[in-house]
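Think of the structure tokens as a kind of shorthand, similar to the way a musician reads notation: each symbol stands for something richer, in this case the local conformation of the backbone. In the example below we present two proteins back to back. Begin with the first one, reading the sequence and then the tokens, and try to describe in your own words what changes along the chain.
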Amino acid sequence: MADKAAAVTTDVVVIGPKVPVTRKSYEIKTKRCFVQTIDELVSCGETLDAASAHVRITPLYYRRWKTLLTKVDNVNATDEFVAYNTKGTARKIHQGRTSVLSAIRPELESFMFKIRAQVIQLTNRMVGREAARILPVFRHKTERAKAVAIHRFTKSMGLTQRAATHTAQKHHTQTEDAAKDFIAMMKLKLQGRNLDDVLNMDQTPIPYSYHANKTLNVKGAKTVQGRSLTSNTKRVTLAVTVTASGKLLTPFLIFKGQRNGQIVQREFMTYPAAGKYACQPKAWMDEALMNEWIDVILTPWKADRDANNPSLQPPILVLDAYRVHQMGSVVNRIQAMGIEVIHVPTGCTYLCQPVDIGINKPIKTRLTKLWEDWMTDGAGIVNGIAKNPAANRLLSGYLMHTPR
């Protein structure tokens, strides 16, 4: 018996910690690839089980994903907004847990619509303040919890923080009819007229620096360093004049300084001859500089036009409702030259003024690119200090690259 017992070998199984089974989660675009592959194999005569085994998933997952993709396609086929992601990078389509603000959603929607209907800037803080007023329990949450709840709530409505592209004192509906009437009037004015005889002039500020508020940096960084220039507010004013045919007249730049100061006597002679330059204590267009613009830009153009392209119809100059443009001394002088002056209605500049819509933005885009090249080349950093470019080397040179 002892020998028999000794001959018996016993396998000892050591039971260790249970290894968890890892479940894979696939993006919708990956699930779509699996389903399409299985459908192609089935169409070629394979069984569903064999086709599923080929891509290493079970038929159960195939049926679930098929239903999911049908739901995704139905959602994407409509214009209805959904708060959850239905793109290929999503793994599930689900609205998430119910927001604490869902109980007062109608009241908050009414409040938000009322504010935006008046074209007043609406912030998350304003929404949170109204939510705390309506729902007392929300008032006792931490500031972090409130911010997250408001963010999720506004996101579920398809709202996000946007920069205002147009700001005005009047409601846009108040200027809509005036803009339409002005456009209809100008269409009649332009019928049968030489487009070289129709001018539009407007001023725009040109900053010396075009550094962005955003920069590339490592994800998750708590502090992102940036550098400002020695005088970020330094700028000039550019008066752009363009004809309806698309021709640009000589640029007129206004620098900050005394009218007959050193910059006029010493520096202007070094600036590109293709531009005209002047000084004003705040670099603004005032009555005196408006008259100077007439002398150095408008009068030579009118003389050249009368000599080479005369017409019985008087030229037209379109100006916005800026105070200087409406001064009697300025308007009377232009009209005495035989040029008809038409003012864009107040609040309609962003709809009716060609220079404001189609000229200023391309000019500033080119300036930004040239400024970035100048900074990248190292000319903008002197002894470790970021400085503005010299006007005669950079700013005026930029303007010579504007399309003509």
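Once you have a description of the first chain, move to the second and do the same.
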Amino acid sequence: MGLFFVCRPHRGFPENFGGCIMTTLELFIIAVGLSMDAFAVAICKGLSVKKLELKHMLIVGLYFGAFQGLMPLGGYFLGRQFESYITKFDHWIAFVLLGIIGANMIREALGGEAEECGCSFCVKAMVPMAVATSIDALAVGVTFGFMPDVNIWFAVAFIGVITFVLSAIGVKIGNVFGARFKAKAEFAGGVILVLMGLKILLEHLEIINF
């Protein structure tokens, strides 16, 4: 598409893309990397749906895609002076939110509770997940603010669209695998979310590096 802008190093960015210029292809790679947490959580959401409808995929895609796009935009306008505050607490927020959500899924699976689809996809259920999976994008947006030639509107829209598509696909994948083994799948999904939150925390504390 011919979009080029200066790339500077940042934690979470692939280093040295063969030069100091970032292309649309490289932005695509970043977008996919940022959307992986949302994709994994979307799979877990698909596990809780007995009869999957298009609206479920659209709801998850819109929430995750919107937050994944808005977070970099917010970070872009925050600027460098707040970067240390963001990176100091982002992993703890993600860890707590994903831990709570995952533990609740495990509790429901063990207790045989059936989660209503309406509640599962309501605002209070979706916002914490969307926030938890997009916090890293906030720090990425801060870095965009240091790039004088960045087209921020294209970048955030691009990231949002990629996340939307992958999240919608993730819901479908989760539903296919969870339809026959809902309780076991929901338990596994809860464990995955807890482990994902723990992984994010340990990586930011530099205890592990996957």
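Compare your description with these statements about the second chain. The helical segments are 24-47, 54-78, 83-111, 117-120, 123-144, 152-178, 182-204.
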